[in-house]
Amino acid sequence: MTDRSAILRHAMPVAVHVLLVRDGEVLLLLRANTRYEDGNYSVIAGHVEPGERVFDTAVREAREEAGIEIDPAQLSIAGVMHRRADDERIDFFVTGRRWQGDVRNAEPEKCGELRWCALDALPANVIPYVRRALDLGVDGPWFEAFGWDDVP
Questions:
Q1: pLDDT, tens digit, 9 for 90 and up, residues 1-10
Q2: CA–CA separation, 41 vs 128, rounded Å?
Q3: Which positions ≥6 away from 19 have C-beta within 8 Å?
Q4: Average pLDDT of span 117-128
Q5: Residues in contact with 29: Cβ distance below 8 Å, sequence separation at least 6, in sequence order
């Protein structure tokens, strides 16, 4: 019999990605000065803080990165990704179609530009797992395991 107190629990970072969508376009952010995927496009995103719900993380990140306010009731789950790269992660992708305020670059020290792009004409330099999420769709729900075949 195994001593349950001796079992290591697997912990991994959890992040939330906000897919702001309007008229068939998604808001992309060009990463800069972050030491992670700088020069590539992503979406509004951030880690879930202790005691924070997924939609609350989305609201906070939208405020911090794009200067807008989103009512959590206006968000929906697009999908969930179990991702493997240097480590394992869980990423929630949520879609927002309504918000208050004008979208602006609220973190110019970390973001080179904001850009609305057609969902069917994304730039080549979108971070691969974000591109995969956008390919799976903004209306979900979907689940994806990403990076498992590529990493030993």
A1: 455 555 677 7
A2: 10
A3: 26, 43, 78, 93, 94, 95, 96, 133, 134, 138
A4: 97
A5: 41, 42, 43, 44, 65, 105, 111, 113, 114, 115
